[in-house]
Amino acid sequence: MTQHYPALLLVTPLLAAFVISAAGWIKRKWCFPIAVVALTVSAWCSVALLLRVMKEGVIHYYLGGWAPPWGIAYYVDYLNGLVLPVICIVALVNLIASKRSVEDQFDEKIGAFYTLYVLMFTGLLGIVITGDAFNLYVLLEIAALTGYGLIAMGEERAPLATLNYLYMGTIGACFYLLGVGYLYIVTGSLNMVDIARILPPLYDSRAVLTAFVICMVGVWIKMGLFPLHAWLPNAYTYAPSASSSLIAPLMTKVMIYVMIRLMFTVFTPYYVFGILDVSDSVVWISVIAIVMGAVLALQQNNLKKMLTYIIIAEVGYMVGGAWLGNRDGLTGAILHIMNDAVMTLCVFLAVGNLVYKLKSYAFADLSGAFGKMPFTMWAFVAGGLSIIGIPPSCGFFSKWYLISGAIKSGHYEFMVALLFSSLVNVILFFRIIEITYFEPFEDHAHGHHGKNIDEAPLSALIPLLIVAAGLFVLGFFTSDFVRLIIQFAIPKGIV
Amino acid sequence: MPDIIQTIIGKYNYWIYITLMMIGFYAIIAKNNLVKKIIGVNIFQTAIILFYVSIGAKWGGTIPILQNVHGEGGAGAATHAIKAVDYINPLPHVLMLTAIVVSVATLGVALSLAILIYRRYKTLEEDEILARIREK
Q: What chain B residue is nearest to A175 in terms of C-alpha separation?
């Protein structure tokens, strides 16, 4: 049984999605428990896989027993061994936390919502675990198409925002597919490890260069790197809270993972940093992404949109870290995949709670929220501290690695951008604290000023508080994560 | 000069797919009507499908079913050498079956979004929709 964990990880939620869609017709009450069971099984498998990787090294799993390059192979190594549990846990926590808001918001569409939710989760896991370049494309589209559905269920402007996301998302995925096509022309293989084995003598080929560039641009579109980010803020803002707190923490992070996978497994550090001389330019792009993300976040007058621009800046952190080309930068980028997923989950869950009670996320409606929903707001502040990067929260440590990577490689502009964005984050979050803590609460509906605590339901509050505490726990165990997992995830050839 | 002609004529399949792709891209960027944009997305995807199909095809190649080895209980396979040159590569074509499914699904999702938008704003022209949003 245990040797089939890589398949079980994916097949369980995939089948569960069909069962849920059937349950949606028969008995809607069953949808949620089935989803929880499926995600728990996946989470269990992913943690077991990580532990096995730490004990025995890379796991190779051949689907249907077909050896690569003919069959599809799943590889679990230290890099995706770390990302898989992050996806599972974030999705599971969010599933439980958003139960009430989903019930209130979707009612008869609950079956459809949970089907899409679990399918998207399957897609994200698949992207991370697969070792086949074309399989990755298919799973990418599964995650994307279900994501469009999840976002479009939101408020009034959601469908238009989703359609804009769909144009960009499809172009991004098509670019990736085109790049894979060029790789297939030159190597005749689709298995990532096999491609990596065949490629080195062909590194001067212009087709290989084209393939690399097109794949990168496709992945950058999907992750919303600054000039290609236009779809992201609206799509994430107008999505229903339950969807945005699934998609915002995971989708961009998974695409960062794909970028790192392409750079260092399909291609090699030697190709990316030795033959191509573009790392400086990409670091500059990420610097611009960080600065622009921070500046645009300052201009927003609603909480959710502000957070989406912070995500754009965070994408810049990770892209820059991966392209610095040294050990510290890449460690920071990989660590930040985990940390950023958890802290984005934390703030988006808090926003979900605020929306659940206050029915709004505009700054104007948030005054006095601290008095009304103290636990939610404290959790939000914890998330904010982590995004700013205040020790001992986990955000501090990944930023520390990124900054030391920037100094070691002489990219001082990247260091300045990181510090600038931290300062802007201080302003952003203290402005929220000012509005919610110091301004009196005005209840427009009931017309009385009250300090009565009116918190979100416990099923939403407890997961949120656990996540908020988790930020500091992750921070506390940072050195263990780096020592036991991440240092082995960094390819040879990067010093 | 002959070099350029060689590049254009000899690799016409690439030129066609890039032209198609750019037509789709143009529609996505420049068209005002949402359905036209969606069709642009579809053309964009179809261009890549065409690219894959064309790299698997070859002059004089036949479908990848072994020739001259049928009958005699398949024993012919052992006696005849199999020349890869005679067969087209089926893999890119098979991959594109999946890509076609993806593109149909994308088209379906996009059109259903367009229906949602039409119900809400009573128009599919993007500038009119944006004007409606600004009014509020």
A: B48
